[in-house]
C-alpha cells in the first residue's frame, strides 16, 4: 500500500512539473494495444532487440552486455560454467492476439514503449489543443518488455510504468541542441529537487554505437545504486524518425504548418523517458538511513515530504482512554481531507515513532492529556526528532507550510 502511494506521488509531481505548470505541454492517455503496423513503422519489430547468449547445458539466457567478468568473457555460463552459445538478437516485444474466432485471430503487440501512441495521435492533439510549435505531449502509462533477465529488485521488469514527454520542435540542429540541453537540465533538477543527492546522479552521453535506432543523440540520467551506475531516465533527440515513419506507413500527412514561416515540415522530437518504478527504487535507496544510538539502530526513511506515502501520522497517547481517542479521531478526520494521514493507536509511543520513521512519515502528531485542556498537540519532526506544541486550530496552516517548504535536497 505505501509503495502505491509513493508511485502515485511521483506521477503527480511529474505531471505537475511537466504539464500543470507549463502552457505549451498537454497530456494524453493512449492505447496499450495498437495496430501491429504501428510497431513496424516505429522500427520496433525489426530493431527492438537485446543481444543474448544461451547456455548449451542449463539453457539459461543472459544479456550479452551483462556478461562483464573475465570468466564470462571466456564464454562460460555464470550458473554452471558450461560454454555459452553465440550472441544472437532477442526481440523484446510481447505478443498477444485479438479476435473472437480462434482461427482468425490477429497477432498484436503489447506496447514496448508508450511513445508511439503519442506520435500516431500527433494531428489530433494539434487540432484539439490548438498548440503551436514548440509544444509537448506528456503521458504516464504501462509498457511491457519480454526481458531476458528481469530482476535487480524492480530495476528491470517485464511490466512497468513510464513517464514521458515528447516535445516537438522546428527541424534544425540548433533548435534540437538547445531543447535537448534544456530538458536534460530540467529533468536533472527535478530529481534533485525531490531529494536525490548530487553525488549519486550523473549524465552519461551515449556513444553512436549505443544509440537506439531512432536517436540522433542520447543521454541518460544515471543513479549510483550501491557500486553501480544505473539508468534512471533517458533524454533523446529522435529527429523526425517517428512522424516520418508513421507518415510513410499510414499515408497520413504528418507535417506541421508553421503560421509564421508559412512552411510545412515534419517536426523533430526531443524526448524525456523515465521509469516510475525505477524512480521509486532510487528514491527509496537514497532516502534510507541508519542512525546508531547507544541502545539501538534507528532506521529512518528520509523521503522528501512530497514523496512520503503518509504526510502525517496521528496518535492518541493511550488507546484505552476514550477522551484521547475521540479528540485524536477529530484531528485525523480534519487532516485526512488534505493529505494522506495514518492512524496508529497500537504499542507504546516510542515504537509508533520508530514505525513511522521507517515508513518515511515526515510528522507525527500525539494527542495527550494536555491536549484536552489546551487544545494543542505534540508535533514531532521525523528527521530531527524535535517536538513542539501546536494549537489544533493551527495544524492545517502549520503542516501546509512545513510540507511545502521542506528542503530535503542532499548535497
From TrEMBL:
PROSITE patterns: AA_TRNA_LIGASE_II. One of its GO terms (cellular component) is cytoplasm. Pfam families: HGTP_anticodon, tRNA-synt_2b. GO terms for biological process: glycyl-tRNA aminoacylation; small molecule metabolic process. Coiled coil: none annotated. Signal peptide: none annotated. Keywords: Aminoacyl-tRNA synthetase, ATP-binding, Cytoplasm, Ligase, Nucleotide-binding, Protein biosynthesis. Residues 1-305 form the Aminoacyl-transfer RNA synthetases class-II family profile domain. The keyword Ligase applies. GO terms for molecular function: ATP binding; glycine-tRNA ligase activity. This is Aminoacyl-transfer RNA synthetases class-II family profile domain-containing protein. It comes from marine sediment metagenome.
Amino acid at each position: 500500500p505505501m509503495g502505491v502511494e509513493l508511485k502515485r506521488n511521483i506521477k503527480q509531481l511529474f505531471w505537475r512539473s511537466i504539464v500543470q505548470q507549463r502552457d505549451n505541454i498537454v497530456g494524453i492517455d493512449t492505447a496499450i494495444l495498437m495496430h501491429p503496423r504501428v510497431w513496424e513503422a516505429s522500427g520496433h519489430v525489426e530493431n527492438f532487440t537485446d543481444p543474448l547468449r544461451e547456455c548449451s547445458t542449463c539453457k539459461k539466457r543472459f544479456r550479452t552486455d551483462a556478461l562483464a567478468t573475465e570468466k564470462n568473457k571466456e564464454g562460460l555460463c555464470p550458473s554452471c560454467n558450461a560454454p555459452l552459445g553465440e550472441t544472437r538478437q532477442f526481440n523484446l516485444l510481447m505478443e498477444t492476439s485479438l479476435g473472437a474466432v480462434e482461427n482468425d485471430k490477429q497477432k498484436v503487440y503489447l506496447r514496448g514503449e508508450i511513445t508511439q501512441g503519442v506520435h500516431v495521435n500527433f494531428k489530433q492533439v494539434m487540432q484539439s489543443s490548438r498548440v503551436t510549435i514548440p509544444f509537448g505531449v506528456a503521458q504516464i502509462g504501462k509498457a511491457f518488455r519480454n526481458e531476458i533477465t528481469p530482476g535487480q529488485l524492480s530495476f528491470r521488469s517485464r511490466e512497468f510504468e513510464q513517464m514521458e514527454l515528447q516535445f516537438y520542435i522546428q527541424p534544425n540542429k540548433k533548435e534540437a541542441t538547445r531543447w535537448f540541453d534544456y530538458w536534460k537540465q530540467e529533468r536533472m533538477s527535478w530529481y534533485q529537487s525531490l531529494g536525490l543527492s548530487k553525488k549519486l546522479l550523473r549524465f552519461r552521453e551515449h556513444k553512436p554505437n549505443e544509440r537506439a535506432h531512432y536517436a540522433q543523440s542520447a543521454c541518460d540520467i544515471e543513479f549510483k545504486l550501491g557500486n553501480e551506475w544505473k539508468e534512471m531516465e533517458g533524454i533523446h533527440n529522435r529527429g523526425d524518425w517517428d512522424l516520418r515513419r508513421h507518415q510513410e506507413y499510414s499515408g497520413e500527412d504528418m507535417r506541421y504548418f508553421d503560421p509564421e514561416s508559412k512552411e510545412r515540415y515534419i517536426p523533430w522530437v526531443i524526448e524525456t523517458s523515465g521509469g516510475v518504478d525505477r524512480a521509486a527504487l532510487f528514491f527509496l535507496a537514497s532516502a534510507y538511513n541508519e542512525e546508531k544510538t547507544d541502545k539501538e539502530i534507528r532506521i529512518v526513511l528520509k523521503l522528501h515530504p512530497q514523496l512520503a506515502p503518509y504526510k502525517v501520522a496521528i496518535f492518541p497517547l493511550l488507546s484505552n482512554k476514550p477522551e484521547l481517542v475521540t479528540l485524536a479521531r477529530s484531528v485525523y478526520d480534519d487532516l485526512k481531507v488534505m493529505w494522506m494521514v495514518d492512524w496508529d493507536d497500537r504499542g507504546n509511543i516510542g515504537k509508533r515513532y520508530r514505525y513511522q520513521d521507517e515508513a518515511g512519515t515526515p510528522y507525527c502528531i500525539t494527542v495527550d492529556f494536555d491536549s484536552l485542556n489546551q487544545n494543542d498537540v505534540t508535533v514531532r519532526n521525523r528527521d530531527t526528532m524535535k517536538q513542539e506544541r501546536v494549537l489544533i486550530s493551527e495544524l492545517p496552516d502549520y503542516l501546509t507550510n512545513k510540507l511545502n517548504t521542506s528542503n530535503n535536497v542532499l548535497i
